[in-house]
Amino acid sequence: MPEFVASLLAAAAFCLTLLALNALTRLLIQAHWAPPDLGESGFLQIGSALVVARVAYRRAPHRQMD
């Protein structure tokens, strides 16, 4: 069960981070503070969301294997 919870937390972290980064990217493009080539759901956003998901997965409680 702890593995399921860790996976669930990592998936939630990935989705929420991707949504937040896409919203931030959209705001930056509309304010002309970012290049127009920077698109939503690009490599930068997905890569950052994956890093956050990995951190969330590693910090989640895991069952001890003794």
Notes on the structure:
The protein has 66 residues and is an all-alpha fold. It has a domain at 1-34. The chain has two helices and no strands. The longest helix is centred in the N-terminal third of the chain and has 29 residues, at 2-30.
Topology overview:
Blueprint: H1 2-30, H2 43-59
Helix pairs in contact: 1-2
Using brief descriptors, characterize the structure shown:
66 residues, mainly alpha, 2 helices, 70% helix, rod-shaped
Distance between the termini: 17 Å
Q: Indicate the low-confidence ranges by residue numbers.
A: none
Q: Mean of residue pLDDT?
A: 87
Number of DSSP helices? Answer: 2
The portion of residues assigned to helices is: 55-70%
Number of strands: 0
So what's the overall shape? rod-shaped
Biggest sheet layout: none
Strand content: under 5%
* SSE pattern, N- to C-terminal: HH
Q: Any idea what the radius of gyration is?
A: 15 Å
Task: Give the structure's gist in a few sentences.
With 66 residues, the chain is mainly alpha-helical. The protein is built from two helices and no strands.
